[in-house]
């Protein structure tokens, strides 16, 4: 039915086929009109690369570093809520694929497998993404759990003080596990493989929250709790509080504005992630790749810059690096793989991206990924 997997889009089609509609839509959607979601990928297509020839590109390397850690290519797995609904034990599978590939995996606060489950299933340290909750006692407890599990970086997400309205999730009645409505039961019946795999795991709801946050022990209390918990009063002062609880590496994720980047660079954090949350929060926000160059010019010499939102190929990674990112994160590119084929699918997504990155670098006449820069791009058809 499906031919060979040649690109991320092939994995997306397979994920759509295998994953129940409610969870597929959760992954493959943006907020409101989905304008920013679409812009994120389209903006990459508008960036053109200089083609160079007759350069000795025999020995090429895409090895790099991210906040001091050696990585096999400048890509990390972004934090994704409900990975364990794309595939049973999804967070464990993605973390294992990342570990074998030699790149960082980031576990979301809103994951299905818990911090402890992922730590037990892997050997290398992973990163933990934190949403600051109104319940600061619970937030502090999560930080302590991440520390105890050996996480070597905290990714603090700043762009979700309020939740972007995602129409598909509302229409589908998104919940984990799915509520037994006629619509969801009919849909689950068409996805028998997914259902069998889910029955084989204990991980079917938010593993970092249920049984850990006070008073959250069933679906009703969970949905009430999460709706109230994301802290809208989060401010730059809150970062001082986080730093008093976490003494490891700190990445500030969700910066899409020069002024915010300038403030972030003064916080003492180790890196920022230029991101609009993959078009899931402010619809109408600029595509992150479009603001990256200005942010890099403003703070690139003060703080390490990572970028995500819209990356679907190794060529996109190349463009992000050329515009000033030290490294990138990918979201959908790996969850399509996860939904399609579990751990093997994540590995496939990473192999595709690495191969495309290496080839693009070769076509651009570069041999070391760390030397890629604006000189590799065209602006309005002319050299920079
Ligand atoms: C996300 N993202 C996200 N970010 C975060 O900090 N915590 C989270 O729990 C989630 N959850 C989440 C779920 C899903 C389904 C998606 C697609 C995204 C945002 C994510 O980390 C990243 O910023 C984007 O995915 C990057 O855009 P692309 O690569 O998906 O286009």
* CATH architectural group: Alpha-Beta Barrel
CATH class: Alpha Beta
Shape from CA axes?
A: globular
Count of individual beta strands: 13
Which H/E pattern describes the elements?
HHHEEEEHHEHEHEHHHHHEHEHEHEHEE
Tell me, rounded to a whole number, the average pLDDT: 96
Briefly note the CATH topology name.
TIM Barrel
Number of domains: 1
The CATH superfamily is identified as Aldolase class I
Rg is: 20 Å
Strand order, main sheet: write it out: 4-11-10-9-8-7-6-5
Counted by DSSP, the helix tally is: 16
* Ends apart, CA distance between termini: 45 Å
Instruction: Specify the biggest β-sheet.
Output: 8 strands, parallel
Please indicate the percent range of residues in DSSP E strands (runs of 2 or more): 5-15%
Helix content: 40-55%
Structural class: alpha/beta
Cofactors, ions, other ligands:
ligand FNR
Uncertain segments are: none
Brief overview, please?
By secondary structure, the chain is of the alpha/beta class. It has 16 helices and 13 strands.
């Amino acid at each position: 039915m499906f031919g060979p997997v040649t690109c991320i889009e092939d994995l997306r089609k397979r994920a759509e086929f295998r994953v129940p509609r409610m969870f597929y839509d959760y992954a493959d959607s943006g907020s409101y009109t989905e304008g920013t979601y679409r812009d994120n990928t389209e903006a990459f297509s508008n960036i053109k690369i200089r083609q160079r020839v007759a350069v000795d590109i025999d020995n090429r390397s895409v090895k790099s570093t991210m906040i001091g850690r050696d990585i096999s290519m400048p890509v990390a797995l972004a934090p994704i809520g409900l990975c364990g609904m794309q595939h049973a034990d999804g967070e464990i599978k993605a973390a294992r694929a990342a570990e074998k590939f030699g790149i960082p995996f980031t576990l979301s606060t809103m994951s299905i497998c818990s911090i402890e489950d992922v730590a037990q299933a892997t050997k290398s340290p992973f990163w933990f993404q934190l949403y600051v909750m109104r319940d600061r006692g619970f937030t502090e407890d999560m930080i302590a759990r991440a520390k105890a599990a050996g996480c070597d970086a905290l990714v603090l997400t700043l762009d979700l003080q309020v939740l972007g309205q995602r129409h598909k999730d509302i229409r589908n009645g998104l919940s984990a596990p799915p509520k037994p409505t006629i619509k969801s039961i009919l849909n689950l019946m068409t996805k028998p493989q997914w259902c069998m795999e889910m029955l084989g795991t204990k991980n079917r709801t938010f593993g970092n929250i249920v049984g850990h946050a006070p008073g959250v022990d069933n679906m009703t209390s969970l949905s009430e709790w999460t709706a109230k918990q994301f802290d809208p009063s989060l401010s730059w002062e809150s970062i001082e509080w986080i730093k008093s609880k976490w003494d490891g590496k700190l990445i500030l994720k969700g910066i899409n504005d020069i002024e915010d980047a300038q403030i972030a660079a003064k916080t003492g954090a180790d890196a920022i992630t230029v991101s609009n949350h993959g078009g899931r929060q402010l619809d109408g926000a600029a595509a992150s790749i479009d603001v990256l160059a200005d942010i890099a010019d403003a703070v690139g010499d003060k703080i390490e810059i990572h970028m995500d939102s819209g990356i679907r190929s190794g060529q996109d990674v190349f463009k992000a690096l050329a515009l000033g990112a030290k490294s990138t994160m990918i979201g959908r590119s790996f969850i399509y793989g996860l939904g399609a084929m579990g751990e093997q699918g994540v590995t496939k997504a990473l192999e595709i991206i690495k191969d495309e990155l290496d080839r693009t670098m070769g076509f651009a006449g570069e041999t070391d990924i760390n030397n890629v820069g604006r000189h590799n791009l065209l602006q309005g058809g002319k050299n920079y």
